[in-house]
Design the sequence.
């Protein structure tokens, strides 16, 4: 029985290290604190947006004017959300969005406007309302601008300031732009304009085409470099490649960071993208496949491998007893 006891000790210490020591080190050695040294507890809100984090951040800064501004803004968003939107009436308002959100990979103001093909499926309703009312405030990057109208999308406020019109446009997206979405489509619409994924040959311009001639590939690479320079100028630095992000960061970090980047990196230029829970799960699925394409096959094989070891250990134990039977 000595071998079984040794195995039990090894398993026990492995579990202790995995479930206690590593999480303890993560939380205690990497605490997130505010300017006064007080620990900040980052929590996911289920990918719903009501300004809770934004207001709390303003309160930690001690800026009463900013607190009032954030409270007023999200209170207005809440009021619009209560209105009954008319998808038919919202179609005309949505048509104005298509002047920029064409899916043609044309950089405007430092970044390519995202496609809205599945906006009603992957984005939260409150976020869509907030984004139309004030993109900088909705994305929680108003600290970048003296006037939030300086945001590349800021001009929409002058075209769509009526609350009912906003409710109608959002109703249109929730009804007409909410078809089933694949993980690849969700990632392309929410993340690609800033982030590359070299493992899937995806750049800020999307998935890299297959070229017949080298000069075509070189010309495309120049376009990618130009786009990266534009994004770098807009963001302050080139956003990281996300090929390994799903393996480098834990679930809690991913959820809270995507929900509110400022919570993890105060002052970052990365905007909140407003994904709802389904949108987040689709993006996570894409990143999981990109960073660990053999995961599904490995997980399917895992039970068989464990079963083999159990059977092998049992046979080895019986063989040992048989060989040593005369030594007792």
Sequence:
């Amino acid at each position: 029985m000595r071998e079984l006891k040794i195995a039990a000790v090894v398993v026990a210490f492995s579990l202790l290290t995995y479930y206690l020591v590593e999480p303890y080190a993560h939380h205690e050695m990497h605490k997130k604190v505010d300017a006064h040294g007080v620990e900040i507890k980052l929590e996911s809100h289920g990918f719903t947006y009501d300004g809770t984090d934004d207001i709390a951040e303003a309160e930690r800064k001690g800026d009463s004017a900013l607190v009032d501004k954030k409270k007023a803004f999200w209170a207005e968003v809440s009021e619009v959300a209560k209105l009954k939107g008319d998808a038919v009436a919202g179609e005309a308002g949505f048509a104005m969005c298509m002047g920029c959100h064409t899916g043609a990979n044309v950089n405007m103001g430092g970044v390519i406007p995202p496609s809205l093909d599945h906006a009603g499926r992957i984005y939260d309703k409150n976020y869509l309302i907030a984004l139309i009312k004030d993109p900088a405030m909705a994305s929680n990057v108003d600290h970048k601008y003296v006037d939030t109208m300086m945001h590349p999308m800021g001009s929409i406020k002058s075209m769509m300031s009526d609350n009912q019109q906003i409710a109608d446009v959002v109703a249109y997206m929730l009804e007409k732009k909410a078809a089933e979405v694949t993980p690849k489509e969700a990632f392309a619409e929410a993340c690609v304009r800033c982030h590359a994924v070299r493992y899937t040959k995806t750049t800020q311009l999307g998935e890299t085409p297959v070229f017949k001639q080298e000069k075509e590939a070189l010309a495309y690479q120049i376009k990618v470099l130009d786009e990266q320079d534009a994004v770098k100028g807009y963001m302050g630095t080139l956003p990281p490649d996300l090929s390994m992000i799903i393996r480098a960061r834990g679930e809690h970090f991913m959820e809270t960071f995507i929900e509110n980047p400022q919570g993890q990196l105060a002052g970052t230029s990365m905007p909140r993208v407003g994904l709802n829970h389904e949108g987040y799960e689709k993006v996570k699925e894409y990143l999981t496949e990109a960073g660990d394409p053999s995961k599904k096959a490995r997980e399917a094989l895992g039970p068989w491998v464990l079963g083999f070891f159990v059977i092998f250990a049992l046979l080895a134990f019986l063989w040992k007893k048989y060989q040593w039977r005369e030594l007792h």
